[in-house]
Write a structure and sequence with these properties.
By secondary structure, the protein is of the alpha/beta class. It contains ten helices and nine strands. The longest helix is centred in the first third of the chain and has 31 residues. The chain is elongated, with a radius of gyration of 22 Å.
């Protein structure tokens, strides 16, 4: 907005370039602000629409009230960056939905594959540790770089007490090393475990690992990247809920699993 104001200042007209910059800002952060509704793949019209509006305002301002070369140059930079972001989000959606079209490897009613992964303190954790003791909610996250994953983890932290009342233990699984996970737990003030799945072997077994993955806005892992997904495992080790592959990220709302939780034997 400061770029727009710097050009609009002194012009006896409506600050159109400033408004265009504001639209660019809204288009850039809107998906994060409304992530509970937008998720990773829903409402993919939002970013292109905001880009087109900003571009039209930019052209209108410079044609009707030409400021000088600054009016053409400065706002165009951030509008271009908005287009790059828009292209990245649409590319991400295409890859996520394309990969999950056939569903995940692990479906409802199947036994959850066991694993042995270190938590943020380096302690090894397995599903078998909780057989006949606790129900488990496994949440696969894309990594500490992912702002949507941060929001998801914070959301489940807020619902942690309700889940504990149902004897459900939440555990996140991500591709980052133990040290990065420890920093993320402290940063987000999480009370549940974040397991390190370096090499993404567990994500591969559950069928929530995308390889190859091509997106400039995601951190690059040699093995690809995990998909955001969740699995509710009962005390017998049987999967009772799987987040919908066609709506990647819907599990951001814990209420989607509450009806299933009510049927579990605590």
């Amino acid at each position: 907005m400061l770029l727009g104001i710097s050009v609009d200042a002194g012009l006896p007209t409506l600050p159109i370039l400033t408004i265009a910059a504001l639209i660019v800002v809204a288009g850039s952060i809107g998906r994060i602000v409304f992530f509970r509704t937008f998720g990773y793949t829903q409402h993919s019209w939002f970013e292109p629409m905001m880009f087109v509006i900003a571009l039209l305002l930019y052209l209108t301002a410079n044609i009707i009230h030409p400021a000088n070369w600054q009016g053409w140059t400065f706002p165009l930079t951030i509008i271009f960056l908005q287009w790059v972001l828009t292209a990245g989000i649409r590319k991400d959606k295409k890859q996520l939905l394309g990969f999950t079209k056939g569903g995940y490897k692990i479906a409802i009613g199947k036994e959850a594959p066991d694993f042995a992964l270190p938590d943020q303190d380096g302690k090894t954790v397995s599903i078998s540790d909780f057989i006949d003791k606790r129900n488990l909610l496994l949440i696969f996250v894309r990594g500490d770089w992912c702002p949507g994953c941060h929001m998801m983890l914070r959301t489940y932290e807020k619902e942690r007490k309700k889940l504990q009342e149902k004897n459900i233990l939440v555990m996140a699984i991500g591709p980052d090393p133990v040290g990065v996970n420890r920093e993320m737990v402290l940063k987000l003030d999480l009370e549940f475990r974040v397991l390190s799945d370096e090499g993404q072997r567990t994500a591969m077994i559950y069928g929530v690992q995308l390889n190859p993955y091509d997106n400039d806005f995601a951190e690059k892992y040699e093995e690809g990247i995990p998909l955001p997904a969740s699995f509710l495992v009962d005390k017998k080790g049987v999967v009772q809920y799987v987040s919908r592959p066609d709506k990647v990220g819907e599990f951001l709302d814990p209420r989607t699993i509450f009806p299933i939780i009510e049927r579990l034997n605590y």
